[in-house]
Write a structure and sequence with these properties.
Number of domains: 1
Shape: rod-shaped
Largest sheet: none
């Protein structure tokens, strides 16, 4: 076997020039090792960018969670104050209605 047969001997190589296997022409015509290296480098950069974005998102999530935790108690406090106000107003309304009915029933007798 002549090792020189795997190299291109013409300016426009064709798949018939290869003896190694059928994938070598496709490998060559798609850019060879340079394209493989560029694809791997692109994947590496995409993974690094994705990791950076995930960390940045995590920082914002932590800040947002702290803010929500701080304001959460205010919302509960307002809800409790509103509930107490409602109970007091409802109680006074019912007492006023009963006393009004009581006075009205005394007048009619």
């Amino acid at each position: 076997m002549d090792i020189g047969r795997i190299f291109f001997l013409r300016a426009q190589p064709t798949p018939e020039l290869f003896w190694v296997n059928h994938y070598l022409p496709a490998f060559y015509f798609k850019g060879g090792f340079n394209s493989v290296f560029e694809e791997q480098e692109k994947e590496r950069q995409e993974a690094a960018e994705k990791k950076r974005l995930e960390l940045e998102k995590l920082k914002f999530d932590v800040k947002n969670t702290k803010r929500i935790y701080k304001t959460y108690w205010w919302a509960i406090g307002f809800a409790l104050v509103g509930f107490v106000y409602l109970v007091i107003r409802l109680g006074t309304w019912l007492l006023e209605a009963q006393t009004f009915d009581f006075k009205a029933s005394k007048i009619h007798k």
